[in-house]
Design brief:
Elements: E1 6-9, E2 13-17, E3 24-28, E4 53-60, E5 63-69, H1 86-97, H2 108-112, H3 144-155
Parallel strand pairs: 3-5
Antiparallel strand pairs: 1-2, 2-3, 4-5
Length: 171
């Protein structure tokens, strides 16, 4: 825990001069207060002395980056409010719990084109199969367009389309 001066203030946080060191550490705006901080300049100004706690260090591109926090230190006394880093661990867990599953969606076509290994029918997987051995087999009903295309291709004289038969209803 240090009581240094604020060197610069940016949109995303404040850089703090570490006493006895040439390095500066960053207090990100999420670590300035337990409340939401939109503008770090409303919390601190250049030259202010604030209590900070070193919460992390990272080597990136052969440079040491120091992460600092103001919200885990009492700004009046400098007492550590999170001596066991429990609040920091909880914050990290909150960040990790959100996952984007949009790229893992299964399209309906992918399921419809599958063939069950248990009964041999199309449209479901073996683990979802409800057929009993020796029982009735169920499969998907082909769409009318596929039947008409097949009939048109094989029939020669019979060329039907949906435009010719508007009264025909789709199931």
């Amino acid at each position: 825990i240090f009581f240094p001066q604020v060197a610069t203030v940016t949109d995303y946080g404040a850089f703090i001069k570490i006493p006895g060191c040439r390095k500066q550490g960053l207090v990100h705006r999420t670590h300035m207060s337990s409340c939401r901080v939109d503008k770090p300049s409303e919390i601190v100004d250049v030259g202010d002395k604030v209590w900070v706690k070193l919460i992390g260090k990272e080597m990136k591109d052969d440079k040491l980056k120091l992460s600092l926090s103001m919200k885990v230190v009492n700004q009046g006394t400098g007492k550590d409010l999170d001596p066991n880093n429990v609040a920091l661990d909880q914050d990290e867990r909150k960040k990790r719990t959100f996952r984007d599953y949009t790229s893992q969606k299964i399209t309906l076509e992918a399921v419809l084109n599958t063939v069950c290994k248990k009964c041999g029918c199309k449209g479901h997987f073996a683990k979802e199969c409800f057929m009993q051995p020796g029982g009735t087999k169920y499969s998907l009903i082909p769409e009318e367009e596929e039947e008409e295309v097949a009939a048109a291709g094989h029939g020669g004289d019979k060329k039907t389309s949906l435009a010719d038969e508007p009264s025909k209803k789709r199931k």
